[in-house]
Amino acid sequence: MSSTRTVPVRLDPSDFLGLDALLSDxxxxxxxxxxxxxxxxxxxxxEGWFDEGVFPKELAKEMADLGLLGMHLEGYGCAGAGAVSxxxxxxxxxxxxxxxxxxxxxxxxxxxxxxLEYGSEEQKQEWLPRMSRGExxxxxxxxxxxxxxxxxxxxxxxxxxxxxxxxxxxxxxxTNGGIADLAIVWARAEExxxxxxxxxxxxTETRGFTARDIPxxxxxxxxxxxxxxxxxxxxxxxxxxxxxxxxxxxxxxxTEARYGIVWGAMGAARACYxxxxxxxxxxxxxxxxxxSYQLTQRKLVDMLVEINKGTLLALHLGRMKDEGRLAxxxxxxxxxxxxxxxxxxxxxxxxxxxxxxxxxxxxVMRHMNNxxxxxxxxxxxxxxxxxxxxxxxxxPAYR
Length: 399
Description:
Elements: H1 25-52, H2 59-65, E1 74-75, E2 78-79, H3 83-96, H4 98-118, H5 121-132, E3 138-141, E4 157-161, E5 164-175, E6 182-188, E7 197-203, E8 209-213, E9 225-236, E10 240-245, H6 247-282, E11 284-285, E12 288-289, H7 294-322, H8 328-353, H9 364-374, H10 381-393
Parallel strand pairs: 3-6
Antiparallel strand pairs: 1-2, 4-5, 5-9, 6-7, 7-10, 8-9, 11-12
């Protein structure tokens, strides 16, 4: 009979299940590089940027120099990284602040991806190399004031005029809108019959295009969020994404972005958990650290369990994506679970910090506020619930 020798295992509070061992050397290098960038360039300034409500546009070039813009895409100057590497980058960026992950997500998944997937060769050559270098910034115009969860009801129109198209309508809650050089605008071309939704590349300098930043946000303050206004905005036929016919094309871009959120939410959760853990071990009440009390330990353990479960889920989805086995419904499951868990972790961490938890001296309430937005953008909690409900019953329940 053979005997099994027990090897002493070091339990790391920040990687309790030893998930680091499941990563390749290249994946660890990406993670550590982005973690270092966040430590050195994001964290020293994030309190001020969040407080002032600004995104440091100058850091876009630095993120481009690290290969983060469109990093999961192939060719045209993009890094061609695997899905897990991209996910790890999103996790580390959001551990700094959701605004930085949102910027990278909008640039790569919502703008560069549709150009690569649905654009002409000329469009790819014109925009993708510049965007990967951070020389051009993009935004994605789908959501409208009256149509968020139901984008198929959009009112923005595209009307032919000779060889041109004339766009009219409004888009709302658009990340990067006020700093963008181009917008992917989705509009209803009624003459196109059964699949009237078309995608257009609209340079923001085009006459009739206006971006107006949304003020007084309490969430995602270190991120630019805008309204796009199109008033007789004329673009040539070369602006149409030739492969994007129907709403399915627009939704595929959202699936790409949601995948990054699955990882990113765990970065925000980890930052809150680590802050609460360090605080609980040093904050003394009734003569001893609050970490020594059973109620506090239960809270910390609940955080630990959910972060490890959520990160394992993200990793599994990443491996599925790299193998070509990932369906949109899998991404819905990941987004639904991980953002919900991250928001609860942030709220619990805020409670551990007490009154200190409401200040910008600690990152917890900043992350909590950001996660309130992440909870509802790229598909609300309810929409992802219905997507999964349809997947397991075969019955759509959206109407």
